[in-house]
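Bumping my old thread because nobody answered last time. Still need a sequence for this structure:
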């Protein structure tokens, strides 16, 4: 995720910077992991989300916030991978780099409680800007470039 943020500057990818981060990653990881990184960057660059970023008024990577977790009875810190304001609405995007291994998106979402994670993100943005200010709350699967709308997220 950090590489996607670092590669995104002035709303376009900087090829030299992108290649440097990929080269650093390749030196410290396996060939499979390095190829997954390259594919993830390409899938992000080819996504509708990336296209919208180029015309967004506000783009925030790694947006941190705190909330009180009633179940665990203490403050939690969360980080939204990408929060951007486009066409008068906020868009909440969570990057996921999971390997599917013949599993569906739904299985992975439930296994890792991604639905609860996105609900927390949604609640935070809604508390700051109002529920009607949110256009989408999605997972961008970097492995294949597909998105999952968080239908379970209450609007």
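Sorry it took so long. Here it is:
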């Amino acid at each position: 995720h950090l590489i996607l943020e670092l590669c995104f500057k002035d709303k376009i990818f900087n090829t030299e910077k992108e290649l440097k981060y990929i080269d650093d990653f390749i030196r410290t990881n396996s060939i499979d992991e390095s190829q997954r990184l390259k594919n993830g960057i390409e899938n992000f660059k080819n996504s509708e989300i990336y296209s919208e970023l180029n015309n967004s008024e506000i783009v925030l990577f790694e947006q941190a916030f705190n909330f009180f977790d009633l179940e665990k009875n203490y403050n939690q810190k969360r980080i939204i991978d990408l929060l951007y304001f486009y066409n008068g609405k906020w868009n909440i995007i969570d990057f996921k780099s999971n390997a599917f291994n013949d599993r569906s998106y739904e299985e992975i979402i439930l296994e890792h409680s991604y639905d609860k994670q996105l609900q927390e993100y949604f609640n935070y943005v809604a508390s700051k800007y109002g529920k009607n200010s949110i256009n989408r709350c999605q997972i961008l699967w970097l492995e294949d470039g597909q998105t999952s709308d968080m239908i379970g997220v209450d609007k």
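The longest helix spans residues 114-129. Let me know if any region looks off to you.
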